[in-house]
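Recap for those who missed Tuesday's class. We walked through two folding examples back to back. For each one, the amino acid string is listed first and its predicted structure tokens come directly after. Nothing is annotated here on purpose, so try labeling regions yourself before you check the end of the notes.
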Amino acid sequence: MGKKGKEAARERREQRRREVTRLRALPYEPHQRWWDLLEPRAVAVVTGANRGMGFEAARQLALHGLHVVLTSRDAAKGQEAAGRILEEAPDGARVSVEWRQLDVADAASVEAFAAWALQTHGGIHVLVNNAGVNFNKGPDNSVDFAEQVIETNYYGMKRMTDAMIPLMKPSPCGARIVNVSSRLGRANGRRNRIGDASLRDKLLNDDCLSEQLIDEMIKRFLEQVRQGTWSSNQWPQMYTDYSVSKLAVNAYTRLVSRTLWDRPEGQKIYINCFCPGWVKTDMTGWEGNISAEEGADTGVWLALLPCEQGTHGKFFAERREISF
């Protein structure tokens, strides 16, 4: 892409950014606020929410009037984050937030959280799978922490999704699962895609896509990392372990959406994923080009979509559908 092409692309991004900012300022109409019709108050769980984009997603959902369960591994940081949301809420806002310990990479922690959510709230209405890690910044592309990245970003998301689906409360507008992903995980992206054309085709073909296919891809990648042969096997070139983890998140989102869509009205669960963009957070070394508030917007928008706009199994960025 030449200089003019890059400038045009930059201008298009800025135009879309301004449009999303405008949309974010528009209040929901009373008939669109399905969560206000629920008694007791709609419950939203946000994982990895003590800082960054997870914190912003929790804050925005709370300001919209949902009861938010803000989760984190660290008790002190999580409790401080929940307190900040309450303290900084505008006067008169119906803000309700509580903290709960959760480590999505620990099966026992997820199981204990699910038992608590059922006993305390009788279930939930919204799950935002935000918890994630990335150990590469700038030009780095180490896979030294690949197993931790995959365990948290993919298996952690999968673990939480599987544990929460049985707890999703019936609602006239359906429950919502929102998975934080990345354009870096696109199967057929122009610059960061996997080199195995056959695997790409299978991942993008609903008739071929399966949990076994996704897990076998992950196992093959991690095995090549252990053997030191991963770089010559055409995996994504940028932030390879993170990109593979998000490729798996995207594929699993599509897979689960197929199993949930046939549910009867009132018991539907809408699951989607989104790319927040390059966000100024600790994960990016504060090198991003948008704020955490902007980055969280599409995820919050998906969690709160009005009944008539319910969608499932899609990938979004800046409130628009993009390709997998």
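Example two. Treat it independently of the first, because the proteins are unrelated.
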Amino acid sequence: MLLHSSSCHILRTEVHQFQTFVVGCCLSTVPAWMSLLSVFHFVCFSQISATMIYASNMTYQEGWVVVNEMPTHVETWGGWIEDPAIKDSKELLICVSGNPGVTEFYSHFLSLIHSTLKIPVWIISHAGHELPPNALHLKYPTVQDKPELYDLDGQVTHKVQFIEKYAPEKCDLYFIGHSVGAKIMSDIMKNYPHINSRIKKCYMLFPTLEHIANAPNAKFFIPMFTYLNRFILFWAWVSTLLPGRLRNMIINGVMYLSHPSGVTDCCLTATDKLVDPVVVKNVFFLANDEMGKIKDLDTETIEKNLSKLRFYFGTTDGWCPVSYYENLRKKCPQADAILCPSNIKHAFVISSSHDMADLVSKWIKEDK
């Protein structure tokens, strides 16, 4: 159903199960596709594989709103952002994603948390990381027109405006900040006290809070962005010319070759959205901005909010190595920081949604 209001256009659908794509039989003829998706796997997902089923047995809705001039995809479990009943909620969990900020990567993870806690759970896309359906006729400035809407500071403003407009005023707000989402949440807590005062707890998962340009994965990403940017954008553009069924077959096949144990349907959907030249350009733009802006650890903000923060670091994280965990422990010894004992990867949403959903649900129960 397509809803219209004076402030936004919303496309809403009831709970549904994503359909599994057919595995392609022509992968040997598309080496460029293999290269393109392989690059995304290294930068965004790393080495991961598991078999999972997307949970869809609870009240789920998704739609689009305009936030800070940008069409924004929203997924909710347990109450849509404009439902009258949501105003009476006593608790709300909002997830701020990493980069790329495509909501479907987190769908399985967040649905599991909702099924455990029975509280409303929301996630929104990053500005420019998902393109609205053509049927909505939503216009928005490009990254060339207004780069300030797409960079790290723009993503912070984007989340602030969403929270201010839609989060109920009289409820405990819990946040998940994954990867650069943790940095976004840190900046919100630092610069927006009226929101920080409403935060009950913030869970920083595999947080990229310092010197991301010096991380091991950056040694690959920076040359790739410098020398292969146009090549990747070209093949992303080529993908838009392919028939939808062929495109889906290729994406499905490449994903299963990379992760033979299987991937969730929601992650296949997210990958399909990601491989678009406009989205790729916006994702790269944010990543490049992160490299230049995320420098020294903001110990002042952490120390001021110790009671609200939990940190979870990986042992094999190419974006947030163990040395960053050790630096946090050294500079903020009272911080509630854990080094993962289970070898969970940075992109946990691909292979470890169950484990991380159990952990975050346990934390929220303890912190109530």
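Answers for example two:
The mean pLDDT is 83.
The beta strands are 2-4, 9-11, 60-67, 70-77, 91-96, 121-124, 172-178, 199-205, 309-313, 337-339.
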